[in-house]
Design a protein that fits this description.
This protein is of the alpha+beta class. The protein folds into 2 domains: about 1-55, no CATH class; about 60-123, no CATH class. The protein has 1 helix and 5 strands, in the order E-E-E-H-E-E. The protein has one helix spanning about 70-90; strands at about 20-25, 25-30, 60-65, 100, 115-120. A 5-stranded antiparallel β-sheet has the order 2-1-4-5-3, covered by helices on one side. The longest helix is centred in the middle third of the chain and has 17 residues, at about 70-90.
Length: about 120
């Protein structure tokens, strides 16, 4: 993949957290947070045309934290729970929920993992 050297500079890029995943237009999206030493123009160009470098603007999000595994079914369960909490607070949802994973699933014990559902809301 891109961060493992499959880019125009064959450069390995340190993996940072969180890694976000979400659905958009019936596609699964995965977004990596780049290290702060880079800006969009400094990053090597992707070799794979499916990889894009984009700026994602900040905003207001409601967050629900959970541990253990973050599979699709479990993430959906927590996303539904967060949507209900947000609606009960009278907040307006602005977009699709995103799963944020902070720990390496290969080396972090399940009960120690930090996962979050981020749900964009209006201020």
């Amino acid at each position: 993949g891109y961060i493992f050297g499959n880019n125009s500079e064959s450069q390995n890029i340190s993996m940072t957290a969180p890694v976000h995943t979400w659905e958009q237009n019936n596609q699964n999206i995965m977004a990596f947070t780049m290290p702060s030493k880079f800006n969009k123009d400094d990053l090597p160009k992707p070799n794979n045309k499916r990889v894009r470098i984009v700026d994602i603007e900040g905003g207001n999000v409601a967050v629900l934290k959970f541990s253990w595994f973050a599979g699709k079914r479990r993430a959906k369960k927590f996303a539904n729970k967060l949507q209900k909490l947000v609606e009960n607070k009278g907040l307006k949802i602005k977009g699709n929920p995103r799963l944020a994973v902070y720990d390496n699933p290969m080396t972090t014990l399940p009960f120690m993992r930090r996962n979050e559902i981020h749900l964009p809301v209006e201020k």
